[in-house]
Design brief:
Elements (H helix, E strand, L loop, with lengths): L1 E13 L2 E3 L5 E5 H7 L6 E6 L5 E9 L6 E4 L11 E11 H6 L3 E3 L10
Length: about 120
Amino acid sequence: MFVQVVKSKIHQVKVTEANLHYVGSITIDEDLMDASGIIENEKVQIVNINNGERLETYVIRGKRGSGEVCLNGPAARKVVVGDIIIIIAYATMDLEEAKTFKPQIIFPDSETNSLA
């Protein structure tokens, strides 16, 4: 049997931009991606703490050290700049492996989106 588990999580970052006129996705500072183990084009779930919205999209690499977290395309309608979101990536694995798997969870500063 296989199960889906949390693989990576960026807990509580601030939305810095919402760009409606883009193909789609979420752009994330490359430092946050590296620290959390999330890779470019990976499917992620976005949970908006401010309004309860949940959506799925894919990741685009943002400028390293910029603190950038930008919802693009239709997802831009689900946030307001300044909203606090959680970004979650999941993995499918064997039940026994899942029992001992440890996800990469980071807690950036939600004002600056930095890992300080």
